[in-house]
Design goal:
Elements (H helix, E strand, L loop, with lengths): L20 E3 L5 E3 L3 E2 L8 H13 L4 E3 L7 H13 L8 E6 L6 H15 L6 E4 L25 H16 L6 E4 L3 H10 L6 E5 L7 H9 L3 E5 L23 H10 L3 H12 L2 E2 L6 H9 L8 H8 L35
Parallel strand pairs: 3-4, 4-5, 5-6, 6-7, 7-8, 8-9, 9-10
Antiparallel strand pairs: 1-2
Helix pairs in contact: 1-2, 2-3, 3-4, 7-8
This protein binds NADP nicotinamide-adenine-dinucleotide phosphate (NAP).
The site of NADP nicotinamide-adenine-dinucleotide phosphate (NAP) has 29 residues, from helix 8 and helix 9.
């Protein structure tokens, strides 16, 4: 038995050794598909932890976690069980994220230590700053809710937080550090000032929101793009839905390819993501879904024509707009995303 399959694989499993990987600038390799663990206020932590256990059994080696998902303490048991069953720690890729209420210099290291304790791990493979704003709100609030202490992006403050992440690397608690929900102007400043460069940037990526400019910028700067909501997040919280949002898995181009391949349109979204070069982290608690999402990476690829057809259906439709992180009244959510190419001033 090789190191990737310490036990005989269960019937529907994918051999993890066959799952493609992406190489970070350190030379480390991240599996090209991960399991998302944000329950969107709809799925219990227990169900998600059970999915993590089942997904590792089915061949996943990459799990995308975050303190704010409030389930790391349950996922920790799933990881422990997987390792007790013979999966080696070094064959797993575990990401966690620093929540917005822990950006203060004194809070960063304890927040990471808490995630490590909850996940029952000695180190994380990747630790991200979840949002570039220190703005937070009570769980499940309406999009009109605002944090009265909310602030715009202040680079000096972001770098103070980043220095603590760099410290975590030096302490051996974290192997790589990265960014999430960033824009090109913000990343330019971080790349200019970081001692340890971001290894990955987590960003919303699906066929109707391809972010070609940011995607290219990230890749050209040696940063691995990790794509969240790769299926278009059909179960995202109601507060993140607007009437103008489009539905990737109902797009005629996606549906036509899915019919030809005899798969669900979600699987086409995952194939497209992997072939484009990002690392999708689809969420699913249903076994047939998470298995088919991983299988997507090891089965018949999309043709060049399919890839071109999907490239042409980009609708620039951001689903996770982040309204609750705005810092003043009567602002548009677009202010969070520097759409004019410059950091939105205070
Ligand atoms: N960094 C960030 O700020 C950030 C933001 C958002 C998300 N994320 C991460 O990205 C992960 C994924 O994003 P997401 O949860 O928003 O959405 P997603 O992965 O695009 O969508 C998940 C939903 O797609 C459906 N689905 C999944 N696999 C399927 C399959 N094979 N066939 C049919 N339907 C399928 C399921 O819906 P049904 O239950 O209806 O079947 C599932 O609930 C999160 O869990 C989280 O880890 C990060």
């Amino acid at each position: 038995m090789d190191s990737h399959s310490p036990r005989p694989l269960v019937a529907d499993a994918v051999n993890p050794a066959q799952v493609p990987t992406r190489t970070l600038y350190t030379g480390a390799k991240v599996p090209a598909v991960g399991l998302g663990t944000f329950g969107s206020d709809r799925f219990s932590g227990e169900a998600i932890a059970e999915a993590v256990k089942g997904a590792i059994e089915a061949g996943y080696r990459h799990v995308d976690c975050a303190a704010v998902y409030s389930n790391e303490h349950l996922i920790g048991y799933a990881l422990k069980e997987a390792m007790a069953g013979g999966v080696r720690r070094e064959d797993l890729w575990i990401t966690s994220k620093l929540w917005n209420d822990k950006h203060d210099e004194k809070d960063v290291i304890p927040a990471c230590e808490k995630s490590l304790k909850d996940l029952q791990l000695d180190y994380l493979d990747l630790y991200l700053i979840h949002w570039p704003f220190p703005n937070y709100h009570a769980p499940g609030v309406d999009v009109s809710s605002r944090d009265p202490r909310a602030k715009p992006y202040i680079h000096e403050n972001y770098m103070k937080t980043w220095r603590q992440l760099e410290k975590l690397v030096k302490m051996g608690l974290v192997r790589h550090i990265g960014t999430s929900n960033m824009t090109i102007p913000k990343l330019k400043l971080v790349l200019r000032d970081a001692e340890i460069k971001p290894a990955a940037n987590e960003m919303e990526l699906h066929p109707h929101f391809q972010q070609p400019e940011l995607f290219r910028f990230v890749v050209d700067n040696g940063i691995v793009p990790i794509g969240f909501s790769p299926i278009g997040s059909p179960q995202r919280p109601d507060r993140d839905k607007t009437p103008d949002d489009t539905v990737d898995i109902e797009d005629p181009v996606i549906v036509r390819i899915a019919q030809r391949l005899n798969v669900h349109p979600a699987v086409v979204c995952i194939k497209w993501a992997v072939q484009r070069g990002q690392v999708p982290i689809p969420f699913a608690v249903k076994r047939e879904q998470y298995v088919s999402n991983l299988r997507a990476a090891v089965t018949e690829p999309l043709t060049d024509d399919d890839m071109q057809a999907i490239a042409s259906i980009d609708k620039n439709c951001r689903l996770i707009k982040g309204q609750v992180f705005l810092w003043k009244d009567n602002q548009s959510w677009e202010d969070l995303w520097d759409v004019n190419g410059e950091i939105t001033p205070a």
